[in-house]
TrEMBL record:
GO biological process: cobalamin biosynthetic process
One annotated GO molecular function: cobalt ion transmembrane transporter activity
Assembly behavior: Forms an energy-coupling factor (ECF) transporter complex composed of an ATP-binding protein (A component, CbiO), a transmembrane protein (T component, CbiQ) and 2 possible substrate-capture proteins (S components, CbiM and CbiN) of unknown stoichimetry.
Record keywords, A-Z: Cell membrane, Cobalamin biosynthesis, Cobalt, Cobalt transport, Ion transport, Membrane, Transmembrane, Transmembrane helix, Transport
Official protein name in the record: Cobalt transport protein CbiN
Family matches, as NCBIfam families: PRK02898.1 (NF002780)
UniProt pathway annotation: Cofactor biosynthesis; adenosylcobalamin biosynthesis
Record-stated family: Belongs to the CbiN family.
Gene name tied to this protein: cbiN
Annotated source species: Corynebacterium xerosis
Amino acid sequence: MTASVNDEQSRTAPKRSGAGVTFGIIVLVIVIAAFPMFFNLGDPNEEEPFGGADGAATEVIEEGNPDYEPWFEPIIGELPGEVESGIFALQAGLGAGVLGYALGFYRGRDKGRGETRA
C-alpha cells in the first residue's frame, strides 16, 4: 500500500504556494500605474499630455502632406469622452472574456486528456 502512495506522489508535481509571486505582481502593477503620476513625461504644452496614436498619426500626415484629404468621414462623428470611455471599457471587457474563455477551454481540454491517460 505504501508503494502505490509513493508512486502517486512521485508522478505529481509538488504544489507551491504562489503568495510571493502574487504579491510581487500586485506590487509591479501598482508601480506601473503610479509611475506616470509622479513622473510627468508627457508634453506639458499639449492639450492632452498623453495623447494616443490617432492624434500622432494625424499630426505626421498633416506635416508630410498638408493637402491630404481623408477618404471618408466617421459615421457617428465626435463622441463625448464618457461614451468613448464606455465603448473602450466594453471592448476591453469583451476581449478579456474571449481570452478567458480560450484559456479555460484549452486548460480544461488538457486536464481532460490527462485524466483519460491515468
